[in-house]
Amino acid sequence: MTETVSEEFYGLLVPLADERLIVPRSCVAEVIAWAAPQQMDGAPPWYVGTMSWNGRALPVISFEAAMGRALPQPSGRTRIVVLHCLGSRLAAGNFGVLTQGFPQLVRLNPDVVKADPTRSFPDRSPVLCALRMVNEAPLVPDLEALEAMIAEETSV
Question: How would DSSP label each residue in 100-145?
Fold first, then answer.
């Protein structure tokens, strides 16, 4: 009996102010409504604060600000995508990323998604790469780097 390996997976297109992120569906714990997080004194602009989620303090960040861009103002469409940590550096085991709308579930396979070699990002960027899809050009976030950034900031 031969085993068939699927080259498809489900991802979420996460809307930001001017871009979209693409993350594997399995990395997303939940999408929750916006609530103003408790801010931390002296935190960088990308660290929005913490909020209570499932009885834990959930760190919340702005991906745009982590890229050095302006922190978007929350609106009625703002949500928080709660992501599972890939490592064990954060006690909560999760962190949140602000979105500027509702994430969209997409099915991905090699026929519809390709690497976008026209874009490059600095070494310390929270972006692994950009992709080309039929009507989208999403960014692939470096979730491990984001987790490390949050861990370093909250350990101070």
Answer: SS--EEEEE-TTT-EE-TT----TT-SEEEEEE-SS---EEE-HHH
Distance of alpha carbon 3 from alpha carbon 1, whole angstroms: 7
Region 31-154: CATH code: 2.40.50.180
Element (H, E) at 64: helix 63-66
pTM score of the predicted model: 0.90
Digit-coded pLDDT (tens) for 57-69: 999 999 999 999 9
Distances (CA, A) of 152 to 86, 90, 142, 145, 146: 16, 10, 15, 10, 10
Helix (H, G, I), strand (E, B) or coil at 151: helix
Helix H, strand E, coil C: the string for 65-108 is: HHCCCCCCCCCCCCEEEEEECCCCCCCCCEEEEEECCCCEEEEE
